[in-house]
């Protein structure tokens, strides 16, 4: 199969879909990899390294996009929609639930759109989301700590406190991969950490992992409102796979937060869990202030640490890319239920229920389309 790797064009998106090591694995399996010149530079991978690994370099995005399968990192931006063509296999993060225009473009062009974030293993885990959630979770506490500094717009507190001065309070809503990683770093900084989750089993697991070093609390509107009144940094880390994020924090709850406190809404890529994170911010201009609270809502946080992120992402995507390329997407998805769950659009239909529901579109089962 011929596989294209275009350069990412989102604001400060320095990741690339494939390292030279990944290219070599696919090349050794008999596939042709076409890499847009300079695609790896932001992650510290030179064009020559791709050539040595067996890739063909091309000058334009159009050439990289005109292959049978395209692998990317971020969901395509409007400027990229004109590259879509019927039957193209697009393997990337998509986050379609909050993206009606992208969903429509993929349907209209009959793209086989396989979303990294909905590839789901039998045990419910999301293997192609996990490494980026690990990165974003760890970054969320670092970033929150920074924006609590006075010069950055925060209330001017040190999360770890000092002897004689209270520690900062961090509340994490959603105790999955992002939440757990955010907790590790916040604890490392010396903060007083609380995790709120809806799943009693998950709260139990968190209690087993962290013991009495953190507080665990059941998710409900009353508990969230009460915790946020005394929180310095709140991190949004809830996910319902494929679906628009639930707005768990109302505008009134935000109004009740302390002036100079900070929100980091990591779940913004699925629409965000705060009523007040009504826009996506960028690494260039990452925050805005509303009701005295600083809001950070960058949808490609791992793009800021591209070297770590690109290697982490390629580690997990290559085995799936090999299945798609070796068997063709139909057989690969029929053989592997996890990959099948990744298909979000196929033959002009939405094939992921939560996405169809988000846009009020007809849902069609991917398995039955592949079986025809
Ligand atoms: N902004 C960015 O750059 C990045 C964003 N993300 C996003 O972060 C979000 C979280 O991802 P993961 O941690 O990997 O998901 P996950 O599936 O590991 O964890 C989600 C957690 O939310 C909990 N949850 C569900 N409903 C809840 C509710 N009503 N109240 C409280 N908790 C609830 C679940 O029980 C689960 O523990 C996703 O939207 C993901 O796409 C991930 C990486 C980068
Ligand atoms: C998960 C995602 O969208 C990202 O890493 O940018």
UniProtKB/TrEMBL annotation:
Family listed: Belongs to the AlaDH/PNT family.
- A Gene Ontology molecular-function term? alanine dehydrogenase activity
**Organism for this UniProt entry:** Pontibacillus chungwhensis
What gene is behind this protein? ald
**Pathway(s) per entry:** Amino-acid degradation; L-alanine degradation via dehydrogenase pathway; NH(3) and pyruvate from L-alanine: step 1/1
Alphabetical list of NCBIfam families matching this protein: alaDH (TIGR00518)
Tell me the protein's name: Alanine dehydrogenase
Q: Could you say which EC number(s) this protein's record lists?
A: 1.4.1.1
SUPFAM superfamilies cross-referenced by the UniProt entry: Formate/glycerate dehydrogenase catalytic domain-like, NAD(P)-binding Rossmann-fold domains
Gene3D superfamilies hit by this protein:
NAD(P)-binding Rossmann-like Domain (3.40.50.720)
């Amino acid at each position: 199969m011929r596989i294209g790797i275009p350069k990412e064009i989102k604001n400060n998106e320095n990741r690339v879909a494939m390292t030279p090591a990944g290219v070599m694995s696919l090349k050794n399996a008999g596939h042709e990899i076409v890499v847009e010149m300079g695609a790896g530079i932001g992650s510290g991978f030179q064009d020559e390294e791709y050539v040595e690994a067996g890739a063909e370099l091309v000058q334009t995005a159009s050439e990289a996009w005109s292959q049978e399968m395209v692998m990317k990192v971020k969901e395509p931006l409007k400027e990229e929609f004109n590259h879509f063509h019927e039957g193209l296999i697009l393997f990337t993060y998509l986050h379609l639930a909050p993206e009606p225009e992208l969903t429509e473009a993929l349907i209209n062009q009959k793209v086989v759109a396989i979303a990294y974030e909905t590839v789901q293993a039998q045990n419910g885990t999301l293997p192609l989301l996990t490494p980026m959630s690990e990165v974003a979770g760890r970054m969320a506490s670092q970033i929150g700590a920074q924006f609590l500094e006075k010069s950055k717009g925060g209330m001017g507190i040190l999360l770890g406190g000092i002897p004689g001065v209270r520690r900062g309070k961090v509340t994490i809503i959603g105790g999955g991969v992002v939440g757990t990683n955010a907790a590790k770093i916040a604890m490392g900084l010396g903060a007083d950490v609380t995790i709120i989750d809806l799943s009693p089993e998950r709260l139990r697991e968190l209690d087993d992992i962290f013991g009495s070093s953190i507080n665990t609390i059941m998710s409900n509107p009353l508990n969230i409102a009460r915790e946020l009144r005394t929180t310095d940094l709140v991190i949004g880390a809830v996910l319902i796979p494929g679906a628009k994020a639930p707005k768990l924090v109302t505008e009134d709850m935000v109004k009740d937060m302390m002036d100079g406190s900070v929100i980091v809404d990591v779940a913004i890529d699925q629409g965000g869990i705060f009523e007040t994170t009504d826009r996506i911010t960028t690494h260039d201009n990452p925050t805005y202030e509303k009701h005295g609270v600083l809001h950070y809502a960058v949808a490609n946080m791992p793009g800021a640490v591209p070297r770590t992120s690109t290697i982490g992402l390629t580690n997990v995507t290559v085995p799936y890319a090999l299945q798609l390329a070796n068997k063709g997407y139909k057989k690969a998805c029929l053989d592997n239920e996890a990959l099948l769950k990744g298909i979000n659009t196929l033959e002009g239909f939405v094939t992921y229920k939560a996405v169809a529901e988000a846009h009020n579109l007809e849902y069609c089962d991917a398995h039955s389309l592949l079986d025809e």
